[in-house]
Design goal:
CATH topology of the largest domain: Alpha-Beta Plaits
Low-confidence stretches: none
Radius of gyration: 17 Å
Number of domains: 2
Mean pLDDT: 92
Largest sheet: 9 strands, mixed
Number of helices: 4
Number of strands: 11
Distance between the termini: 22 Å
């Protein structure tokens, strides 16, 4: 059996697995490639890039924090973070008694070009929002959401746009593509 690795743009509201006893939307509704499994998670209320593979050692390289594979997110947060909040995100935030690794954080000057989400974010007329680009090198449970909340800027929308050398690119929500050989090799 030949190994297969794909990039998938997970839509909002889809579970990052193939079955759900409660009948909620899963990857099975979008991907009919036998033998591939998610290399890492992306919560039901988050969107964007997932890598699925039939190669167990590749999945391990993607998910094991010792490999420090960068994961890049666009996060729409409540209120405009100041320099102090951005610096705290950059140096690491204490979550459940454990400090996150340093992250690269950039305040975007405008709203990124993303597909519309089927369920709009919570909108409050008197509370502005901002977009951050956050790059982390680990994958604690709901890490980006917990980090932004810890510095007083809860995440309203979260989209993963890259995992290491693999970018979401122009994949629309629900679409997938095979990874190129050079992408797989660049993962390490």
């Amino acid at each position: 059996m030949s190994l297969r690795t794909i990039a998938f743009n997970k839509p909002y509201g889809v579970l990052p697995c193939f079955t759900d006893p409660e009948g909620r939307p899963t990857l099975a509704g979008y991907i009919a490639v036998p033998g591939v499994y998610a290399a890492g998670r992306l919560d039901q209320d988050s969107e964007g890039l997932m890598i699925l593979t039939s190669d167990g050692s590749l999945a391990h390289r993607i998910t094991d924090p010792r490999h420090k594979l960068a994961k890049v997110y666009l996060a729409q947060v409540e209120r405009i973070p100041d320099g102090q909040a951005l610096a705290r995100l950059g140096t690491g935030v204490l979550l459940g008694g454990k400090r996150t690794r340093p992250a690269q954080v950039r305040l975007l000057s405008g709203e990124p070009l993303l597909a519309e989400r089927p369920v709009p974010i919570r909108f409050r007329k008197n509370v502005p929002t901002a977009w951050l680009e956050i790059t982390i090198h680990e994958g604690m449970n709901r890490q980006v959401r917990r980090m932004t909340a810890a510095v007083g800027h809860p995440t309203l929308r979260l989209v993963r746009i890259a995992i290491g050398p693999v970018y979401l690119g122009d994949l629309k929500p629900g679409e997938w593509r095979d990874l190129k050989k050079n992408e797989i090799e660049a993962i390490g």
